[in-house]
Specification:
alpha+beta, single chain, about 280 residues, 10 helices, three-stranded antiparallel beta sheet, 7 strands
């Protein structure tokens, strides 16, 4: 009878569900912080072990903050994809080439307030902030845009330099102000991959923007090319446009890379020839 009782107990024990062993500790920041507190309260705590745990906690917090930042920015990018930001402000340029005198508007741009009008509400929804700071740099101004996720504290910076915009007879102060505004627009567009469209391009990509036009004009001066370049790029002639700036502004946006590579090739050839002669 006693043997039967033992067998019955053994059978009951074997049929009893086995409780799972406790799993490995989570590596989330709260869990690591709880472990740190336990180590701190231990009078025999290993200082080196505590330092390693603190370093792990900081890394996990930084990664958690980065993930929160990326999630918020990703949601903003998704919403911005459905918003059309249009170039609606003309850039005026004075011309006086002997045949024609006056003011023309070779191209338009989207001012900072137009971009901010669409972007600011989305930033507020995701508790993000976009701030700007500027500092002098060699040959001009450098603007820093800082996108920060306020709850986590994670931020990322974007930089862009440019020389002072002295076009149109601007004073030194006006030149700095114009460049500052110009750089802020492009920093914001770079951070959020914003593509500003023309209001009359009929879906064909429109013409180059203000920054691209300035780049091409600088390269034209270095390459010392003439009207043939404008004809090659299917832009308006100097006579029809009234000025080089206005003619360059008619280059198609889809041909921007082609224009830059062509001019850089011409500059390289000229420099190679000069080096050969010297």
């Amino acid at each position: 009878m006693e043997n039967q009782t033992r067998r019955t107990r053994k059978t009951e024990q074997s049929e009893r569900p086995v409780e799972p062993l406790p799993g490995p500790a989570s590596d989330s920041p709260p869990t690591v912080l709880a472990l740190i507190e336990r180590v701190v309260l231990d009078p025999h705590a290993d200082v080196e072990k505590l330092d390693r745990m603190m370093a792990m906690y900081e890394r996990l917090k930084a990664k958690e903050a980065e993930l929160a930042f990326n999630g918020a920015k990703g949601r903003i990018l998704k919403k911005l994809a459905g918003i059309k930001i249009v170039k609606n402000r003309p850039v005026l340029s004075d011309i006086d080439n002997g045949k024609q005198r006056g003011t023309v508007a070779p191209f338009k741009y989207a001012p900072l307030e137009e971009i901010d009008k669409h972007l600011r509400p989305l930033l507020a929804e995701e508790q993000m902030d976009l701030s700007y700071s500027d500092e002098p740099c060699e040959g001009g101004i450098l603007v820093r845009g800082r996108l920060k996720h306020l709850p986590s504290g994670h931020y990322e910076d974007s930089f862009m330099p440019a020389p002072p915009d002295t076009t149109g007879g601007k004073s030194n102060v006006q030149a700095v102000g114009s460049t500052n505004s110009f750089l802020r627009r492009y920093v914001a567009c770079n951070i959020f991959n914003i593509v500003v469209v023309g209001d009359d391009d009929d879906g064909n990509g429109g013409t180059i923007d203000e920054a691209q036009a300035k780049t091409i004009l600088e390269l034209i001066k270095k390459a010392k090319v003439g009207p043939k370049f404008l004809k090659y790029m299917r832009a308006e002639s100097l006579e029809d446009a009234g000025s080089l700036e206005a003619a360059v502004a008619t280059i198609a946006a889809r041909d921007y890379r082609k224009a830059v590579s062509t001019l850089e090739e011409q500059i390289a050839k000229a420099e190679a020839g000069h080096a050969h002669l010297s």
